[in-house]
Amino acid sequence: MQLIVNAVKTKPGAKAALVLVLIALFVLAFSTLTMGAPGVTYGDVNDDGEIDVRDVVLVMQYILELRNLTDDQLKAADVTGDGEVNIRDASSIMRYSLGLIDYFDVGEKIESVEEVKLEVPYGTKVENIDFPSTVEATLVDETVKDIDVEWDDDSDPEYSPRSARDFVFEGKLVNLPSGVRNPDEIKAKATVTVYLPWKDMPTVRPPEPDPDPDPDPDPDPDPDWPEEMDGEPVISEIDLADAGYAVWIKIKDQYVDDVVGVTVLGKSAAQYADDPAWWVAAFEDEVTRDDLIGEIEIELTEPEEVDVIDMDETRAVLIDIFGDDIKVIVTLEEGEEATSVTADGSVMTEVEDGVWESDILFGYEAGDTVTVEVTTDVGVQVEELVVEEVNGD
């Protein structure tokens, strides 16, 4: 018997014939085997928790019409998934028991994984999201198994606790139960919805501008609003147990995709799901326009640094008009383009392809520094230029 087993292990091409010989030797020896409770684990026909030659014997006895099998036993024996129990199934079970294969073609393959849906209030950090430790996986035979999952930290789009929208996380299926396999590397998915605290209040939305606002008797003519804000903040009343006023902040179109957070009076605002240009914060006490001046902060993503300036040709020079005037010339590397260039915040003009010049800037001396900022489609480069003493322009 040991010789036959060794031959099967060392000569896979002859394994089918040798398996049948081995099966025949065991049929009579185990013809009086007792059965355990019915089971549906593929290959474990006698439901003893093991897949071994005893299961092969039962299948062969059924094929040779020496005994009958229950419905559950027939299902466990049909490891090829063709709806019949025949010599192909006996051979597959024997090969599995000998370690020649490590899975069957039916029942154990994961076909789909149930998507997880979670809702969290805005402000919830990713580490505080209660992801499930297991997910339901459906196998090809429609059997459902609970599978352990390890969730990724990243999501699509990148998770922000202060954006009221959906974020999709993926997870790797791990610690697969015995016999279950995932050859297609199917992953678990979880959709996390960040919602506003008043998500069920359909009347809470950016208000329409008041066509006839009450005049402010003493308005601040030059309030300190962030430059990314479009117009003035809008204050509206809401009817909630823990909040009575909403402050709406609208972001200018060019900044909408770059805003990662808005703070109003020290409180985090939430991005409005139906229009990402709007951010809103709720307050229990009344809020006025004057309260908000200097108390709105808009956080932007850090621009990527680029290297597009030709430093050999870029200069800040002192020109002899009133003795303290300079002009800045910024030359880009060949083939590079910029969307804007500034010198100490003053907007420069592209006078020819890749060459930008400033207006005359006042109040500088030789040796002073000028901050040049070049913005491109992919990022920003910032350089400090030393003012040179050169006569002429």
Explain this structure:
- The protein is α+β, with helices and mostly antiparallel strands and 393 residues long.
- The protein has four domains: 2-97, no CATH class; 110-195, Sandwich (Immunoglobulin-like), CATH 2.60.40; 234-300, no CATH class; 315-389, Beta-1,3-xylanase, CBM31 domain (Immunoglobulin-like, Sandwich).
- The chain has six helices and 22 strands.
- It has helices at 2-10, 15-29, 53-63, 71-77, 87-97, 289-292, and strands spanning 110-113, 116-121, 134-139, 144-156, 166-174, 188-195, 234-237, 245-250, 259-264, 267-268, 270-271, 278-283, 296-300, 315-319, 325-331, 340-343, 346-347, 349-352, 355-357, 361-362, 369-375, 380-389.
- The strands form four sheets. Strands 14, 15, 16, 17, 18, 19, 20, 21 and 22 form a nine-stranded mixed sheet that branches. Strands 1-3-4-5-6-2 form a six-stranded mixed sheet, with no helix packed on it.
- Strand 16 (340-343) and strand 17 form a beta hairpin.
- It is elongated and about 115 Å long.
Give the helices and strands as they follow along the chain.
HHHHHEEEEEEEEEEEEHEEEEEEEEEE
Fraction of helical residues: 10-25%
Q: What is the overall shape? A: elongated
- For the termini, the CA-CA separation is 101 Å
The number of domains is 4
Number of strands: 22
Largest sheet: 9 strands, mixed
Secondary-structure-based class equals alpha+beta
Strand content: 25-35%
Number of helices: 6
Show unreliable segments. 1-14, 24-39
Rounded mean pLDDT is: 81
* Rg estimate, integer Å: 37 Å
List keywords for this structure.
393 residues; alpha+beta; Immunoglobulin-like; nine-stranded mixed beta sheet; six-stranded mixed beta sheet; 22 strands; 31% strand; elongated
